[in-house]
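Table 4 source record.
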Amino acid sequence: MKNLLIYFAAINIIAFVLFGIDKWKAKHGSWRITEATLLDAAILGGSIGAYLGMKVFHHKTMHKKFKYGIPLIIVFHLLLVFFLIR
């Protein structure tokens, strides 16, 4: 259980940082992190970090796959945790 909590903390931090880096790169015209990578980080357990990254950095908030997809992934993760605990 401890390792699982460490994993989820780490993947959420990674997702958050990825959104921040991508926003910085977007502002500076640099090579970007792919949308697939950002979504993969969310799917792999970093959905809350991705959501916070969207809000804090004001990044990808108008893209439908992020605007609606990230909250759906959060709901899926919460349901998964609920059924695993139950």
